[in-house]
Design brief:
Distance between the termini: 72 Å
GO molecular function, one term: 4 iron, 4 sulfur cluster binding
Structural class: alpha+beta
InterPro entries: 4Fe4S_Fe-S-bd, 4Fe4S_Fe_S_CS, QueG, QueG_DUF1730
Number of strands: 8
Keywords: 4Fe-4S, Cytoplasm, Iron, Iron-sulfur, Metal-binding, Oxidoreductase, Queuosine biosynthesis, tRNA processing
Order of helices and strands: HEHHEEHEHEEEHHEHHHHH
Number of helices: 12
Pfam family, one: QueG_DUF1730
Length: 315
């Protein structure tokens, strides 16, 4: 029996990913991110991470996957669809980012990745590898670009020309050499819709492809633990957890192929969440918060944080 070729091994890895339900799979060589190191250092020096001090931690590891997995050779990047079958009711309701409708994606996708990793080990032997879903110091969007499945848009989200940007990124770092894909090219062109639409100037014409995290609605409604600055009053457009404005206006998300709904039951909103109105949000209790958001990303804000956001936008 002929030994499996590098190409065959690479195709096997990708096919297993597609069978597991991932939209895309791209592969790049595990190496130090030299340019990104300079960019990240400058961004942090300018304070654009706000109170997200965790981004400052593990600086060296964040830029070199070989520090996460001994003798790492390859970084595999996967995309998993979260575009909902139906958005939550927008009339007489507050807005929640689409990714947070259902169960915490970290747990859902991490489980899939671990199954995928175990399957590959059964096929190729016990190699060294680790799975990451937005839970470790690794620059997923950079690796997605290097692996050819996305480019990073002017709103800084990862965009695929066929499936837009409403997907999660996940990563496998392994010590197996594979065939590597070529980086994708930027296709934003002269479009500035996302920059023009940002109500808090977290995105700007002066600094396209760079977000001021300290001004982003998602930052204010999720990461910020203090009082929301008064100068932001009236700019949230009813968003109380996260924000999809820059993605909603993106032409790449207007394509039919980018609006194919996910089939992941865990990402569907509960009936109770679908029935919420502004009046219900105003009367939200700690008990209802626990019932609505147990096991979801929104649990992260805690009851007090979500109430703060609701009070801020209703004024």
């Amino acid at each position: 029996m002929n030994p499996i070729s590098l190409h065959q091994k690479t195709e096997y890895f990708k096919n297993v990913a597609f069978e597991a339900g991932f939209l895309h799979c791209g592969i790049s060589k595990a190496t130090f991110l030299e340019k990104e190191a300079r960019d990240l250092e400058k961004w942090l020096t300018q304070g654009k991470n706000g109170q997200m001090q965790w981004i400052e931690n593990y600086f060296d590891i964040r830029l070199d996957p070989r520090l996460l997995v001994d003798n790492a050779k390859s970084v595999l990047t996967f995309a998993y669809n979260y575009y909902p079958p139906l958005p939550l009711e927008r009339e007489n309701n507050y807005k929640i980012s689409k990714y947070a409708y259902g169960r915490d994606y970290h747990k859902v996708i991490k489980k899939k990745l671990k199954h995928l990793l175990n399957h590959l080990k059964e096929e190729f032997g016990d190699f060294n590898g680790r799975a990451f879903v937005d839970s470790a110091p690794i620059m997923e969007k950079i690796w997605a670009k290097k692996s050819g499945i996305t480019w990073q848009g002017k709103h800084t989200n990862a965009i695929n020309p066929k499936t837009g940007s409403f997907f999660f990124l996940a990563t496998l770092v392994i010590d197996i050499e594979l065939e590597y894909d070529n980086p994708t090219k930027d296709r934003c062109g002269n479009c500035t819709l996302c920059l023009d639409a940002c109500p808090t100037d977290a995105l700007s014409l002066e600094n396209p492809y760079q977000i001021d995290g300290s001004k982003c609605i998602s930052y204010f409604t999720i990461e910020l633990k203090d009082k929301i600055p008064s100068e932001m009053q009236g700019k949230f457009e009813d968003w109380i957890f996260g924000c999809d404005i820059c993605q909603d206006v993106c032409p790449w998300n207007k394509r039919k192929s980018a609006q194919i709904a996910h089939t992941e039951n865990d990402f569907l909103p509960s009936e109770l969440l679908q029935e919420m109105t502004k009046k219900d949000w105003h009367e939200l209790t700690n008990e209802l918060f626990d019932t609505l958001f147990l096991g979801t990303p929104i649990k992260r804000t805690k009851f007090e944080g979500l109430k703060r956001n609701i009070e801020f936008v209703k004024k």
